[in-house]
Design a protein that fits this description.
Elements (H helix, E strand, L loop, with lengths): L2 E5 L6 E5 L6 E3 L6 E3 L17 E4 L27 H29 L16 E7 L6 H19 L5 E3 L2 H9 L5 E8 L4 E8 L2 E8 L7 H19 L1
Parallel strand pairs: 6-7, 6-8
Antiparallel strand pairs: 1-2, 2-5, 3-4, 8-9, 9-10
Helix pairs in contact: 2-4
């Protein structure tokens, strides 16, 4: 008995079975879908017997579609963040600036301490740094205190100016006369008043003696430091007026 050859209507698998099975519904052995065996025209179908359905030949299977793989992540390393050397550079710059300020601060402070009268120094024509010194005799101290103040003043002169030459003014009138006398070549005058505990620096501005700097709280035990500051102040004033 010849076979009926046909293909599955679902998966196109080529099949073959005996003619006696024509018209029956069977399950495709390839895709398991229910199909019907086609009829054979003018064929004598013998009594039903066991079916001998088999695959005639294996149809090529369609390639199974697979989902595209996701794009691989870039394996390139992330760009590095800026290193901490920038912070180190900034800290170094701040340290240098702080060192400059520490060195320059004393000089800036001295310039800032100059009184308003010092603004007139630009009108001066200072040729020398010759300084005259005077001390007003005390009218309120005891003889012992006055002697001690005089000794401290002389010691401060030696320490800062290398000499002990000064004019002793016995009264305010004598002091005014000393201030008014301004020999040629004298740049500044420094006066010490023990009763007021004050040291003043005088300069001739527009022909008139003027106080350009004064130091308060100039007690006898502080005279060495006060006269040192006065010396530095005179040097600064001279540079400003030259």
């Amino acid at each position: 008995m010849s076979d009926i050859k046909f293909e599955c209507s679902h998966c196109k698998q080529h099949l073959a079975c005996e003619e006696q099975d024509a018209g029956k519904q069977i399950q495709c052995p390839a895709c398991n879908q229910l199909i019907q065996i086609p009829e054979v025209s003018a064929a004598i179908v013998p009594p039903a017997g066991p079916s001998r359905l088999h695959i005639a030949h294996q149809a090529p299977k369609a390639p199974r579609e697979t989902a595209p793989l996701p794009p691989e992540e870039s394996l390139e390393p992330e760009p590095r963040r800026p290193r901490s050397w920038r912070w180190a550079w900034r800290l170094g710059a701040y340290a240098v600036l702080a060192a400059v300020l520490v060195i320059a601060w004393p000089k800036l402070t001295k310039l800032r301490e100059l009184p308003k009268e010092a603004s007139n120094v630009s009108k001066l024509s200072v040729q020398t740094l010759t300084v005259q010194f005077a001390m007003i005799d005390s009218t309120t101290m005891t003889s012992g205190e006055s002697s001690e103040a005089k000794a401290k003043f002389i010691a401060a002169l030696k320490e800062n100016y290398g000499h002990e030459n000064y004019t002793a003014c016995s009264s305010p009138q004598a002091f005014d006369q000393w201030v008014g006398q301004w020999p040629i070549g004298t740049g500044y005058k420094l006066a010490y008043n023990p009763d007021k505990a004050e040291v003043t620096i005088w300069c001739r501005i527009e022909g008139r003696p003027t106080i350009v700097k004064n130091y308060l709280d100039a007690k006898a035990d502080k005279l060495t430091d006060i006269l040192k500051q006065a010396k530095e102040g005179i040097q600064i004033l001279s540079k400003m007026g030259s």
